[in-house]
Design brief:
8-stranded mixed β-sheet
Length: 426
């Protein structure tokens, strides 16, 4: 299946909607089965109560049971409340369905990458308009545009080489539809032949998943932790937070504010405490309370690189000792608006600890969204989440195809429409 056809499915959400419906049908069937068991159990209890309550007729006649009016009135008053609660539950269910719907997610990528698209894609469109044929000069100008978008030198060189090969292989002469070819190659370069690289390493039900967050101060690390906790809560997971950034003034309070907002417990100690001790307490608390996920915050900046490395390694050792195999994810928060400086930060933290994924914040605030590709290609670390806005649900799992669509949405929409017309004619 070609890139445009795959993208059309993600835009309409047809394939994913079918999966959602199948999941809902399974859940509904389970609910019906559970309700049947409950009703059967209640019927048995009722029978027992009736049997134990049976008395001679004389006793019933002599002492008739009188139902007081206030009791009836109270029961009637409760009915609207029950209906309201059921209505609220349905509304919450619909909200969650919309939040996780494929079409809504694709729209978030489109909106979140608007600044980059307005800068980068418009220039590519101008380039296509000026060059009616694909030649060497066209590739030279395209190379320059990609570099300006912070895609990174190595990635740009690889992309141009692969594009030139693709153009020769398919004997492409015209620049018409070249955006789709560029898009497909960008996705291939990002994924590098690996499947499910953006999936989190979640543990089976009943086991604790520990996620460690690292990153310098000011990149939106605490906010991201709060949004991720909310996301897991919406999925029905029991989440707890560990306030391991005990060095920065106000960091503990900031995490507590997010904990209160999301409705999750925060394990903390006083400012200046040993972060490793906080992790120890948090893990034990998470185990005792039956938590599914523990998200751990850490200090963003210590006196020097050596101190940073030592502190993170100590925290890592304590977590691994208490939960073998943990932390299951080490996510590095990077600010997309810092461009190439984000790469420098990533290299430092990669040396300090084993980073398993990147969370790229504030992607909606930069016109140089190509940094996603540079991070992946130069550091060989996948971007697992991206921040596409200020709202709680604007933190989204990274999707290479949706990301590339966000870069070229306007021109790709036209090509998808043309594809539909061709299928109608056939």
């Amino acid at each position: 299946m070609g890139f445009l056809q795959r993208m059309k499915e993600k835009l309409t959400g047809k394939k994913d909607e079918e999966q959602l419906e199948q999941l809902e049908e399974t859940n509904e069937a389970d609910a019906i089965e559970d309700n049947a068991e409950i009703e059967e159990s209640q019927a048995e209890e009722t029978t027992k109560v009736i049997e134990s309550a049976e008395k001679p007729v004389k006793e019933i006649v002599e002492e008739p049971e009188v139902i007081e009016e206030p009791v009836v009135e109270e029961a009637l008053e409760e009915l609207p409340t029950i209906v309201e609660e059921e209505s609220e539950t349905k509304e919450e269910s619909e909200q969650k369905r919309h939040w996780f719907s494929p079409a809504a997610i694709t729209e978030k990528f489109k909106h979140g990458l608007e600044k980059t698209r307005n800068s980068f894609s418009s220039k590519v469109n101008d380039l296509v308009a000026r060059y009616r044929t694909v030649d060497e000069e066209f590739f030279e100008e395209l190379e320059e545009l990609l570099l300006q978008a912070d895609v990174g030198f190595e990635t740009v060189m690889q992309l141009i080489d692969e594009l030139e090969m693709e153009v020769k292989r398919k004997n492409i002469k015209s620049t018409d539809g070249i955006q789709a070819v560029i898009s497909e190659k960008l996705v291939e370069i990002y994924e590098q032949g690996e499947a499910d690289i953006t999936d989190l390493n979640m543990q089976p039900d009943g086991e604790l998943t520990v996620i460690l967050f690292v990153g310098v101060n000011g990149v939106g690390k605490t906010t991201t932790i709060g949004k991720l906790a909310h996301r897991f809560e919406q999925q029905g997971k029991k989440v707890m937070l560990a306030a391991g950034d005990t060095f920065r003034a106000g960091a503990i309070d900031q995490l507590q504010v997010w904990g209160d907002r999301v409705g999750v417990e925060v394990i903390k100690q006083s400012e200046g405490s040993d972060p490793a001790a906080v992790m120890y307490d948090a893990i034990n608390a998470a185990k005792n309370r039956g938590a599914d996920i523990l998200i751990c915050d850490t200090a963003g900046r210590l006196q020097n690189k050596v101190n940073l490395m030592n502190e993170l390694q100590k925290v890592h050792r304590v977590i691994e000792r208490e939960v073998p195999g943990a932390p299951h994810e080490v996510l590095l928060a990077l600010d997309a608006t810092t461009g190439q400086n984000a790469l420098v930060q990533a290299k430092t933290f990669k040396e300090a600890t084993k980073v398993t994924g990147i969370v790229l914040t504030k992607l909606d605030g930069t016109a140089k969204g190509g940094i996603v590709l540079a991070i992946r290609n130069q550091l060989h670390i996948p971007v697992k989440f991206v921040g596409l806005g200020e709202k709680m649900d604007d933190l989204q799992p990274f999707d290479a195809e949706r990301y590339v669509y966000g870069l070229f949405a306007d021109s790709l929409d036209k090509q998808i429409d043309e594809l539909d017309e061709q299928h109608k004619d056939v």
